[in-house]
Amino acid sequence: MNRPHVVALGGGTGLSSLLRGLKRRDLDISAVVSVADDGGSSGRLRRELGILPPGDIRNVLVALADDESLMGRLFQYRFADGDLSGHPFGNLILAALTEVTGSFDEAVREASRVLKVSGRVIPGTLEHVRLWAEREDGSEACGETLIASGVGACRRVWLDPEPAAHPDALAAIADADLVLLGPGSLFTSVLPHLAVGEIAAAVAQAQGLRVYVCNIMTQPGETDRMAAVAHLDRMLEMAPGGVDVVVVHDGTLEPAALITYAAEGQEPVTIDIAALEARGVRVVAADIAEDDRAVRHAPEALAAVLEPLAREGAERRAQSASAYPG
Question: Is residue 125 a contact partner of residue 37, using CB atoms and an 8 Å limit?
């Protein structure tokens, strides 16, 4: 059997952490990356050069690169002084490659070759978009930075204008044995993919196993006090029927870390397995958190849970193909 094809949709640190574990497994990986970022170096380059934000793409490229690669470390080097202060070297390289090649898409492909990336990195769209969110109180915010820095949980997100999906992203989802949504900021990294109508439809129609990896902690300005079932509901509203399995953390968390997080308005996401299963999904609960002061997913532990699901998805697709040849 060929290596299972895993397609991960996300952005931010959650996607990068996920990929660091998956790349050590015998899997064929495609990462579909959000291009809605408007903060920091990415926001500056977006405004000043008119390019798509490179930051999340850079992090994913490095996550899938050789761990010992000098170029990988260079891509993450951040200038501290002068006009370049705050810019990671990799963002500038992607900006330069975009101008040299005339295409952000080609810039990502060339950077992948330079870094000897294990897998494919695909922008979710090649169009410039603005991310909007509506909060539970009815107020609206525009831009990933303002959304994440606001107060109160979000209710929904959308993109303005609604863009066309990258054709390679749609092809990857259709060919996937395992489609991964999350982990990562729900409203600014994961759901923006489903705000692209073609991607939401592709996920809903995918023949592979669709898996949502739920965050371990709530996130201020996005998921305040939201239980796991509320996270899932937001996913299903944008891609009806688009989740088969929900992966949740089941284990202890460092008490000192929880005190620190509580001071920042974060708490463990409440897990109600019966409520999740009532949505028609299977729940996989496992100890997948790092054992330290940062409450986040452990790449290796998460990969150990996801690899069998990828093989299950490959078997499901093979059986479907044999039942309906041609």
Answer: no
- Report the predicted TM-score, pTM, of the whole model to 2 decimal places: 0.95
How many Cβ atoms sit within 10 Å of the Cβ of residue 82? 7
Give per-residue pLDDT as tens, 108-118: 999 999 999 99
For CATH 3.40.50.10680, list the domain ranges present in the chain: 5-31+128-323
DSSP letter (8 states) at residue 82: G
Query: What residue ranges in the chain does DSSP mark as E strands?
Result: 5-10, 28-33, 120-123, 130-135, 140-142, 154-160, 178-181, 209-213, 245-249, 282-286
Q: What token pair was written down for 306?
A: 């996801």
Tell me which CATH code domain 5-31+128-323 carries.
3.40.50.10680
On whether the CB atoms of residues 176 and 7 are closer than 8 A, the answer is yes
Compute the average pLDDT of residues 16-26. 95
Q: What is the mean pLDDT of the chain?
A: 94
Q: Are 88 and 58 in contact (CB under 8 A)?
A: yes
Backbone dihedral angles phi then psi of residue 158, each to the nearest 5 degrees: -155, 165
Q: What does the pLDDT average to over 177-181?
A: 98
Q: What angle do CA 307, 309, 312 make, to 5 degrees?
A: 115
Structure tokens at 255: 């008490």
Count the neighbouring beta carbons within 10 Å of the beta carbon of residue 167: 11
Element (H, E) at 148: helix 144-148
Give the Å distances, CA to CA, from 135 to 124, 191, 311: 24, 14, 38
The count of other CB atoms within 10 Å of the CB of residue 232 is 20
